Amino acid sequence: MATPEIGKAYKRVVSPHNPPLRVIVVGAGLGGCAAAIALHHHGHEVVAVLDKVRAFNRLGDSLGLGENAYRLLSRWGCNVKEVQDIGNQSPTMKIRRWHDGKILAEQPLIDMAGYIGHRGDYHDIFLKWVGERGIPIRMGCEVVAYSDADPVPSLTLASGETLTADAIVACDGIKSLARHLVLGARDDPVSSGYACFRAYFEPSAEMIADPARNAFLKEDNVNFWIGPDTHVVQNTLRGGREFNWILTHKDDGDVPESWFQPGDMEEVRRLVANIDPDIREAIRSTDKCLDWKICYRKPLPTWVSPESHRIVLLGDSCHAHLPTSAQGASQACESAGTLAVCLGLVGRDDVKIATRAYEKLRFPRTRVSQTHGEDLRDRWHNVLKNVDEDIEIDPEMVKIKVSSLPPR
Ligand SMILES: Cc1cc2nc3c(=O)[nH]c(=O)nc-3n(C[C@H](O)[C@H](O)[C@H](O)COP(=O)(O)OP(=O)(O)OC[C@H]3O[C@@H](n4cnc5c(N)ncnc54)[C@H](O)[C@@H]3O)c2cc1C
């Protein structure tokens, strides 16, 4: 059901199934939206995208969308210029020494580390793309139970309504309910040993006028300060009118796994006491921040339900990434494309072969991109340990590495 907004040149793939496979997507985050768009593109019928919240707010802060995601979204008929235009416009990012801001490496803001934008702004556009395709998004629909019956799996909403489909794609995030069904047990988060303090705000007129705080407000930019066991990411959005800093630090406390836990600014001020003076006061003068414990899950033994093999996990529900991977949303797009293609390659009775092929194809790829995040964090946190001031660091030691991109 391509509408004029999608563009005249866009061609949706004709479903190999008659009638098309009916698929339900649980979760309308970036992963769920990408899944809906990819499934639609490949000719499947997305019966509905369900989300438990009644409305979406502009939550989170900066999020990277890599070139791998852009290529797929373009292929699916999305006008990616819409997300590029609202993202950070800096051509490069600078990786700096913690205490004095000396630039250790500079690299283009493309490829896997991608275009940085506000998660909420990107999400608005993804939701719009889903809507343009006539795919129903049902808000306030919390899935409270799954039935893994073969060949017709189902889910139950909090309202008591039951829905069935040929396949159910659970993009229900890091605290996924579907993951319990798939694993047959609850899996607890594992602490990464780090947490982030994060703040996102519109700088005040006083801050913009204050030379001690405005060094990075003049235009869009992306900077990283790396030091022993810590790093700060700072970027602007909207030409410097919005400001984001994220301080990653050793986590020896017990901050709960939450996107909304308030942070302790006194602790932040202590942690940045000796950072580059050009950024120090901009951080220290911030009035509030969030404290995100960086948790991850051990790689899951399976992403597919045990009985029908027709309920599958996608996105953070099965392959959450560390912030230093900058690939959470982009890998969700890759998974969406792979699943949609696999479902088009099998007969109606062989959906289980498609879901298992999806899992086998995607697991190694996401492991590589997850471990890149660990590798980068460890390189940043260790490279300056026991190194004299005057020793030059090889820029390659601190650059974000580009994973191989899918073909155009
Ligand atoms: C509030 C929030 C803020 C974030 N901020 C950032 C950020 O600043 N930077 C960054 O890089 N990443 C951030 N992320 C993570 C990033 O969005 C994801 O890594 C990426 O977009 C892939 O996410 P996803 O769609 O798989 O999961 P999510 O984005 O977590 O989306 C899951 C969706 O499923 C819905 N859901 C969950 N359970 C149910 C259920 N039982 N029934 C129905 N619906 C359900 C949720 O309401 C949610 O909309 C944030 C995630 C969240 C939820």
TrEMBL record:
Record-given protein name: FAD-binding domain-containing protein
InterPro entries, per database record: FAD-bd, FAD-dep_Monooxygenase_BioMet, FAD/NAD-bd_sf
Origin organism lineage: Eukaryota, Fungi, Dikarya, Ascomycota, Pezizomycotina
Keywords, in A-Z order: FAD, Flavoprotein, Monooxygenase, Oxidoreductase
A Pfam family reported for this protein in Swiss-Prot or TrEMBL: FAD_binding_3
Keyword Cell wall biogenesis/degradation listed: no
Gene Ontology molecular function terms on file: FAD binding; monooxygenase activity
Annotated ranges, domain FAD-binding: 22-348
Gene3D superfamilies for the chain: FAD/NAD(P)-binding domain
Family to which the UniProt record says this protein belongs: Belongs to the paxM FAD-dependent monooxygenase family.
